[in-house]
C-alpha cells in the first residue's frame, strides 16, 4: 500500500454537491467528510449558489471538479477560464482541482460533453504540454480523471490505460480514478478492468469516483443515476488495497434522490475497505435496469445545476 500522490490527504468519503440538496445540508449539517463541486456551476455565479457554497466551505473541505478544461482540444487553452478557476479555488480553499482526459469543444464552442481522444504519441505530447501550462497558471498540480467512452479511434497506438499512466508520469500530475468509468469502458470496449486498475500508478492516485450507470443491453452509459453495482465495488476494493485509501466520492447526477440516500450509498464503501470481504462478480438482474433508449452523458446535466 502507498500514500496518495502530491501530499494530499485522504479526505474520507464525500458527496457531489448538488443544488437539490442545498436546503438539507444547510439545515441538518450532515456528517459528510467533504464535498466536491462542479467548478463551472460556481465560477461565474455571485448569487445563491455561491452564497450557499461559501457557507458549506466554512464547515466542510471542498474539492473542485471541472468539465470544461478541454485538455485534449486543439483550441488554445482558455486562460480567462483558468484565471476564474484559480480565483474560485482560492476563495473556497479547494483542496485540489480536477478535470477529465478529454476534449469538450473546438473553435471556441463548448459541446457540454466529455469527448474521447485518440491514444497516440502526438496526442500524448500535446496533452502533456498543456497540463504543464495549466499547472503553472493554477500554481498547483492538476488532477485528471479517466473518462468513460463509447467509441475508439482506429488511429490509437496504445490503450487508454497506457496513455493515462504515461501522461501522469511525464506531466507530473495526479490522477482521479473513476472505477465506474473503468468498468463502463471495459464493457463497451472489451478490456480487462482489473488489469487496468492494477496498472495505474497507485502513488499518483489522489481521488476515486464511484457512480451508477445505465445498462442499455449492448453497451453501458455513464449516467450517474443509480446505485453502484458489484463489479464496480470490486474495482474500488482493489484500488483501496493498492493505494491504502484515497478520498472517495459518490456522483449522483440524474434522478437524484434525497440526500440521506446519496450519503448512504457512499458510506457503503466502508464495507469494501475490508480486504477479506468477498463481493459477487455480478449483481442480480433488476427489473427495469436495462434501457434501450439513448441517454445523455452526465456532462449534459450541468445546466440544471444553475439557479
What is the strand tally? 12
Q: What structural class do you assign from the helix and strand content? A: alpha/beta
User: Would you identify the regions where 5 or more consecutive residues have pLDDT less than 50?
Assistant: 284-307
Rg measurement, Å: 18 Å
Broad shape: globular
Q: What share of the residues does DSSP label as strand, in percent? A: 15-25%
First-residue to last-residue Cα separation:
43 Å
The main β sheet shows up as: 8 strands, parallel, barrel
What's the number of helices?
9
Average pLDDT reading = 90
Helix content: 25-40%
Q: What is the N-to-C order of secondary-structure elements (H for helix, E for strand)?
A: EHEHEHEEEHEHEHHEEEHEH
Strand order of the largest sheet: 1-2-3-4-7-8-9-12
Describe the structure.
Helix 4 packs across helix 5 (160-171). The protein starts with 12 loop residues before the first strand and ends in a 40-residue tail after the last helix. It has an eight-stranded parallel beta barrel with strand order 1-2-3-4-7-8-9-12, surrounded by five helices. The protein has a two-stranded antiparallel ribbon with strand order 5-6. The longest helix has 18 residues, at 121-138. The protein has helices spanning 22-28, 48-57, 79-92, 121-138, 160-171, 179-189, 193-199, 230-243, 259-267; strands at residues 13-16, 34-38, 62-65, 97-100, 103-106, 109-115, 142-145, 174-178, 205-211, 214-215, 220-221, 247-251. The chain is α/β, with parallel strands linked by helices.
Amino acid at each position: 500500500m502507498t500514500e496518495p500522490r502530491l501530499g494530499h490527504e485522504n479526505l474520507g468519503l464525500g458527496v457531489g454537491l448538488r443544488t437539490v440538496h442545498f436546503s438539507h445540508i444547510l439545515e441538518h449539517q450532515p456528517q459528510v467528510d467533504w464535498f466536491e463541486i462542479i467548478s463551472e456551476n460556481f465560477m461565474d455565479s455571485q448569487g445563491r449558489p455561491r452564497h450557499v457554497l461559501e457557507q458549506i466551505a466554512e464547515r466542510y473541505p471542498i474539492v473542485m471538479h471541472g468539465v470544461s478544461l478541454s485538455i485534449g482540444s486543439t483550441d488554445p487553452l482558455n486562460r480567462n477560464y483558468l484565471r476564474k478557476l484559480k480565483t474560485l479555488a482560492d476563495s473556497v480553499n479547494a483542496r485540489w482541482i480536477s478535470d477529465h482526459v478529454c476534449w469538450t469543444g473546438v473553435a471556441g464552442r463548448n459541446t457540454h460533453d466529455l469527448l474521447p481522444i485518440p491514444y497516440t504519441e502526438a496526442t500524448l505530447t500535446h496533452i502533456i504540454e498543456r497540463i504543464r501550462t495549466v499547472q503553472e497558471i493554477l500554481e498547483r498540480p492538476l488532477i485528471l480523471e479517466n473518462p468513460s467512452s463509447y467509441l475508439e479511434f482506429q488511429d490509437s497506438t496504445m490503450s487508454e490505460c497506457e496513455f493515462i499512466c504515461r501522461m501522469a508520469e511525464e506531466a507530473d500530475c495526479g490522477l482521479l480514478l473513476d472505477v465506474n468509468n473503468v468498468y463502463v469502458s471495459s464493457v463497451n470496449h472489451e478490456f480487462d478492468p482489473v488489469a487496468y486498475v492494477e496498472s495505474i500508478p497507485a502513488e499518483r492516485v489522489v481521488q476515486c469516483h464511484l457512480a451508477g450507470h445505465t445498462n442499455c443491453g449492448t453497451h453501458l452509459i455513464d449516467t450517474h443515476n443509480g446505485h453502484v453495482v458489484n463489479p464496480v465495488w470490486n474495482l474500488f476494493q482493489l484500488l483501496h488495497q493498492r493505494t491504502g485509501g484515497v478520498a472517495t466520492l459518490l456522483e449522483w447526477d440524474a434522478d437524484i434522490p434525497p440526500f440521506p440516500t446519496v450519503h448512504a450509498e457512499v458510506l457503503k464503501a466502508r464495507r469494501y475497505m475490508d480486504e477479506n470481504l468477498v463481493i459477487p462478480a455480478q449483481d442480480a438482474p433488476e427489473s427495469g435496469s436495462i434501457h434501450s433508449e439513448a441517454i445523455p452523458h452526465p456532462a449534459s446535466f450541468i445546466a440544471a445545476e444553475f439557479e
